[in-house]
Design goal:
This protein has 633 residues and is α+β, with helices and mostly antiparallel strands. The chain is 29% helix and 28% strand.
Length: 633
């Protein structure tokens, strides 16, 4: 990126009245809802404030005009011009939520000095302040948030009738289709400020009429027949396939957006509800008669209705023929093996093709942020940065009973070179209420498999001593008890990968109690296999002081290079990682350094760093690593 201007920068707090209203009921506002509210606010808020006026209806769609403000999708607005503080009443409608809400805006920080300092550091090739990095990412993604579907940190174009012929889509499974989006990140690198771009694929539900969607998904050609829906098993399959999906309801009574909560067991001509007539008398009427009397007769009166209300809410019935699956809905949860294979076939490409794909996507999408970046004092280079590299030969991975056969970076582990002992161990799982199955039988089966594979790998491995399920609030007391059992390690089953309990278990068990733990995600129990056991045992073996294998490092050295003969003297292999803690936001750099000839054992040195992408105390860390190296060797 090139730098060519300096500007003022102001941070405002954006208080979304709709969000406050929704939070009364304990519901979290989504990014789409927040962006929709912000778009409504920006149309009417302070029409005279530069750089855009809210009277200009074309401003939001003209890519050459930077927006008057940049919204981070949560609560912060950044702008290069001061805008008046105060309140604005915003008429707002998103799906079934509508009304007038108050939007309040207040300046919270003048970042001009930090901005100027960061721009000077950028010119000198140094890292910029984290807050300014966040601002630049906000500017970069502002229009993407307004015009694309966000899945994780990737932005996908919304497929419409106008652009469906230009977006490459790939059918993954019945009712599901994949297409690619652009993932963009602004980061500090050794080469300066960099815009990192890559393409990613995601799976979406097909935007079809609900009957067509279910016919495709459930492979049922006679889905419009009453006899099909009379089968209880079919209705249950249909509910499982579409419950929770957003639909558009296009009925004679109007268009609206809803979420599917249930499919009624009764058909429209049998399903009755209470209404009041013109005289105010309450009477009962079926759904089919209601539409025939008030609008027009239903095409499929003998098919069920969609209930879009929760169990505790007043029922809201819509004939299934009026319902269509809404676009923009990514498929959540795990794909099955066949769908994963289809995704790999669609997404994987040779490196030259990936290069062309990313270059083409950037050329097309840069108009969304190019002008905004210019206002922010940055210029995007036309071409990617080139870096010299070489492809290394696959290393030889040696085990106790031979070398593993490598195939495209993966291999089947053999017997461990230095197996450890784990005679006493147990398991604990957290009762969070998120499990779809009883974990105890799965854990028992897994423990038998783990013990069997451990013996094959050469480890002396005992039976699981206990399987305890506990309330997460009691985890501290349980770990205190587990410490008294003199375990070699404790297997901890948690509900998800980024569980809030993971850092708490690790910090208290291993730092305070000196109790070794190995965590396992609950869903992995469902797909437990020998490969998973071997991966887990390699970690457990290393934690207990053993090591699984060693790599012939000499393959990394070319015969005629200056490094030839390098391993004839003591060599230290290092790896550096930088992470920000979840609890207090500290940025910590960790340096791992080997201290044996096969680089199988490593010592760790950790220091805090003032930069999120650089180890500012690297010299001090290297000195400590060298001291440790000579102490241990």
């Amino acid at each position: 990126m090139s730098i060519f201007s300096q500007l003022q920068l102001f941070e405002y707090h954006f208080e979304n009245g709709y969000e406050i209203e929704k939070n009364k009921y304990g519901k979290k506002i989504s990014l789409e809802e927040s962006m929709a509210f912000f778009k409504e606010w920006i149309k009417i808020a302070d029409a005279d404030s530069p750089p855009n006026s809210s009277n200009s209806s074309s401003a939001s769609s003209d890519h050459s005009t930077p927006p008057r403000a940049y919204f981070d999708g949560r609560s912060k607005i950044y702008t290069f011009e001061m805008i008046p503080e105060g309140e604005v009443i915003v008429p707002f409608r998103y799906q079934k939520h509508s009304g007038e809400f108050t939007a309040r805006i207040k300046m919270t920080n003048d970042l001009s000095h930090v901005w100027q300092r960061s721009m000077e550091r950028l010119k000198a090739g140094e890292a910029i302040d984290p807050i300014i990095l966040h601002v630049k990412e906000t500017i970069l993604k502002h229009k993407f948030c307004l015009e694309h579907v966000k899945v994780g940190n990737t932005y996908y174009p919304e497929v419409t009738e106008a652009n469906q012929h230009y977006i490459q889509r790939f059918p993954i499974a019945p009712g599901k289709v994949a297409w690619k989006g652009l993932n963009l990140t602004v980061t500090n690198t050794m080469g300066g400020l960099s815009l990192q771009a890559k393409t990613k694929a995601a799976v979406f539900y097909k935007p079809l009429p609900l009957l067509e969607f279910l016919a495709e998904l459930l492979n049922e050609g006679a889905i419009d027949q009453e006899r099909v829906w009379a089968m209880r098993g079919f209705r249950e399959r249909a509910i499982a396939a579409c419950k929770g999906l957003q639909i558009n309801v296009n009925s004679p009574a109007g268009c609206r957006s809803r979420k599917i909560m249930d499919i009624t067991p009764d058909s429209a001509h049998m399903l009755r509800f209470k209404i009041r007539d013109e005289l105010g008398n309450e009477r009962s009427q079926n759904v089919a008669d209601y539409y025939r009397n008030k609008h027009e007769a239903l095409k499929y009166p003998k098919l069920p209705c969609i209930n879009t209300a929760g169990k505790k809410a007043r029922p809201e019935f819509f004939p299934i023929e009026f319902c269509s699956i809404m676009g923009r809905q990514p498929v959540k949860g795990k794909l099955n093996d066949r769908e994963v294979a289809s995704m790999i076939k669609f997404a994987s490409k040779p490196a030259p093709d990936t290069f062309k794909e990313i270059s083409g996507a950037m050329a097309e999408k840069r108009k969304l942020f190019e002008q905004d970046f210019r206002v922010a004092g940055l210029e995007i280079e036309e071409k990617m940065v080139r870096a010299e590299a070489r492809v290394l030969e696959e290393p030889k991975v040696n085990y106790a009973n031979g070398a593993a056969q490598m195939r495209e970076g993966s291999w089947n582990p053999l017997r461990f070179v230095k197996p450890a002992q784990a005679k006493r161990w147990g398991c604990v799982y957290l009762k969070t209420g998120n499990a779809r199955f009883d974990p105890v039988p799965k854990i028992q089966d897994f423990s038998y498999m783990l013990q069997k594979i451990a013996h094959e790998m050469g480890m002396e491995f005992g039976e699981c001593g206990f399987i305890n399920g506990i309330d997460p609030r009691e985890i501290g007391d349980f770990l205190d008890w587990a410490k008294t059992e003199e375990l070699d390690f404790l297997l901890c089953v948690i509900d998800r990968k980024f569980s809030d309990y993971y850092p708490k278990i690790k910090a208290y068990a291993e730092r305070t109690l000196d109790l070794l733990t190995q965590c396992l995600v609950l869903k992995n129990l469902e797909r437990a296999n020998p490969q998973l056991c071997k991966m887990l045992l390699a970690k457990i073996n290393a934690k207990l002081g053993g090591y699984s294998c060693y790599v012939d490092l000499k393959l990394a050295i070319q015969e005629n290079s200056d490094a030839a003969g390098l391993f004839e003297v003591p060599v230290m292999i290092q790896a550096l990682d930088i992470n920000t803690t979840q609890t207090d936001g500290l940025t910590i750099a960790t340096l791992a350094s080997s201290f044996d000839e096969n680089a199988t054992s490593f010592n760790m040195v950790a220091r805090t760093t003032s930069e999120p992408n650089f180890a500012t105390k690297l010299e001090e860390m290297e000195q400590a690593a060298l001291v440790n190296f000579y102490k241990l060797t």
